[in-house]
Amino acid sequence: MSEDREFKEEEQLSAVLSEMPETVDSDMVRLNDGLFGELAEALPEELSDATEEETIPSCGPLSKKERKELARLNEVKLTLRRMLLQMLLPAGLLMWDELIFHIYVNKGVHDSSVWYIALFAAAFGFLYAIPTGFLRDKAAKRVNTVFVFLVTFWFIIQTFYQKIFNNYLTVSVMGNAGDAKEFWKEGVRSLWSRAPLVVLLLLPIAFWIVLRKLGFRHGTVGRKCFIIPALGVMITMSVAFAFLNGAKARESGRRNVFFKEWQSDRGVRENGILVGLCQDLYRSATYHPDDIGEIVIDAELPEIPTLAAPTPELNKPMTPEPTLAPNHTPTPTPTPVDRSPHTLNIDFATLAANEKNTAIKTIHEYMASTTPVNKNEYTGMFKGYNVVMLTCETFSPLAVSRELTPTLYKLVHSGFYFDNFYTPYWITSTSDGEYTACTGLLPDTQKSGSFSRSSKNKMSCCLGHIFHGMGYATYAFHNHDADYYDRNKSHPNMGYTFIAKYRGLKVTDQFPESDVEMMQLSIPMYINEDHFLAYYMTMSGHMSYNWDNAMAKKHKNEVSKLPYSDDAKCYIAGNIELENAVRYLIDELEKAGKLENTLIVLSGDHYAYGLPEEARNEIAGHKIEEEFELYKNHLVIWNPSIEQQTVHKAACSLDIMPTVLNLLGIEYDSRLYMGTDIFSDTLGLVQFKDNSFITDYVRYNANNGKALWLNGAEDWDSETQKKYIESYKTIVRNKFNISRAMLNNNYYATVDSYLWWMHPEQGIPESMQ
């Protein structure tokens, strides 16, 4: 056996020696002096695939043993060259794409995210080099070519998606790819507007083509040398994880986002596109409804120091407006004011004690520990009224002006004027914004399509079911495709008769569709009902904001003389159609004698992300601050009887549902919603998908840990401020995790039997009769 092995080694050696010169060349001499010191000098020779070597005068014939040793050293040299190239090329490609994208899109040159992104990109490159090191030249060329093109394509797709939606494309969002078919023109425009970035992202393809033309050969590294790229992976990942476990990463929440509560927007911005893809794939593969994240039961609101500024105006006793009953007879608000809690007869503690499902048990415990919201002087102010609720596509303060949209201006500024209201932006744009307003719950920020997914649950606590249980006719209308975002499933599931394009609403086939047409076709369906709830998801304000937009064309003459860019003019034109639709609605209600006993509630779904930043600033007349001001919006709660009063309390679209329930005097359990009645004595809270938040006393940016203190809170001592921030961090995290758990575990089904409106045989509570 040993003789056969020696014979084979001798045969292999003879083959190597036959290709070697009889004399020692300069490379070999230098190799003996220091192999690793000459690798950099040798790399260009490998890249050009040079085969000829300069020789120096012969030092005499070599012995067989010396020639064998030199052959082995030369083989090591070539293997190391190949290995370094195979490590550096993919690592360089990924670092280039990640850093160029980050610097261009996030303008992040000096932030710490650059180091995380570079380390993770290098680690992915080294990891890729391990399996490809075993491939032969032809196979390796094919695999590397596919790799280069796929990586480039993915980054360009992210460029397109991020520009349009100001978010990152995830695997779960790709499930809604068919819903984005109208945006291909906007995609072309977005790529054109980011042409420099696209060109930079295409450079690796050009570089790879040049390497191929120069005759670059991959070669096989072999089994032993995979240790070096593996070591590279270990080193880069160890450094990155060391940073993630540092004090700064813990304090800023970066560590928590990476390891526990992944948020695609912030996570990608801080760690890179590739980490985002891996996190998304991992969480999709390991998803389980029982995994609800960290919940702190009995989380307490922080105590407000007595030295703070006066309580925000809304929380002071206010002179109550007259309560208008359906017969229009003014009735003074009862005295004393009922300030009992908004609760139903649900014993959450007992439910928790008897529950076996871990997630549902935790939700019950959370509900049991939550302090209910109290009734107030506005409770029942519009008892027995009809309600028309609108979620308006891309509605924002930029759409409201006294001259061009006088009806919207009137609704915003007369009656209740909410000057501290926000519409946070989530991950499924319109659908998530609509979900928040319609359910009083936060959307899942780790997985897209919350509204679509809710269609498989019992959504007993939505307005449609509640009003239907009160004997109201309940309708939901949308002037775009009925199955877009699965509204044909989610909206009937909320208790509405759902009517939309291709589902009973015969609007003109154009994009975007007309809100006026929707009103003309829909109002006759309910206007003669004794009591009705009509919900609208409008469409006319939708991007793209150019003259191909049907609503922009329709109102071009009305905006043509405005001193703005075409983008800005087209955005305003689309909202003139909304203006006309709302005016038509009010006129028809008045003609039917229903306006006086109808409450109109109007809000937006998200900020105008489809409008270029320059155009937004142009209309606003100043540069809009992007941390919080960008999401500031109007909330309309209007009836002609309401006298103007300003509401300073911090609030958001999450609060719409419980606020409407309180104004109509409906008996409900405030613990079942993550939002709160804006008119209650509960402190205001606005929370964003990255865990930033606004209260009546602070604006806290979770990305950098900076806090802007308000209303006298700047005078609190540092320890009090720190406790306040930490308390609200917990509250915000709880609300996100509980909302997600309620969605993933069909929570309302567990309390359905306690909801009077779901059981007509129980009758309407006496307090509402």
Keywords:
alpha/beta, Alkaline Phosphatase, subunit A, seven-stranded mixed sheet, four-stranded antiparallel sheet, 46% helix
A few lines on this structure:
The chain is α/β, with parallel strands linked by helices and 769 residues long.
What does this molecule look like?
The chain is an alpha/beta fold. The chain has three domains: 2-75, no CATH class; 85-285, no CATH class; 313-324 and 347-367 and 381-768, Alkaline Phosphatase, subunit A (3-Layer(aba) Sandwich), CATH 3.40.720.10. Helices cover 46% and strands 9% of the residues. The strands form five sheets. It has a seven-stranded mixed β-sheet with strand order 8-7-6-9-3-10-11, sandwiched between helices. The protein has a four-stranded antiparallel β-sheet with strand order 14-15-16-17, covered by helices on one side. A hairpin with a 5-residue loop joins strand 1 (323-324) and strand 2. Helix 4 runs antiparallel to helix 5 and helix 6 crosses helix 8 (184-193).
What's the helix and strand layout?
Blueprint: H1 2-18, H2 26-33, H3 39-47, H4 64-106, H5 113-132, H6 137-165, H7 171-174, H8 184-193, H9 195-213, H10 227-244, H11 247-252, H12 254-259, H13 264-271, H14 273-285, E1 323-324, E2 330-331, H15 348-354, H16 358-369, E3 386-392, H17 406-413, E4 416-418, E5 421-422, H18 429-439, H19 450-454, H20 463-469, E6 473-481, H21 487-493, E7 497-501, E8 504-505, H22 515-522, E9 532-537, H23 550-554, H24 556-559, H25 566-591, E10 598-604, H26 613-620, E11 636-638, E12 645-647, E13 651-652, H27 656-663, E14 685-687, E15 693-695, E16 698-701, E17 706-709, H28 718-744, H29 748-751
Parallel strand pairs: 3-9, 3-10, 4-12, 5-13, 6-7, 6-9, 7-8
Antiparallel strand pairs: 1-2, 10-11, 14-15, 15-16, 16-17
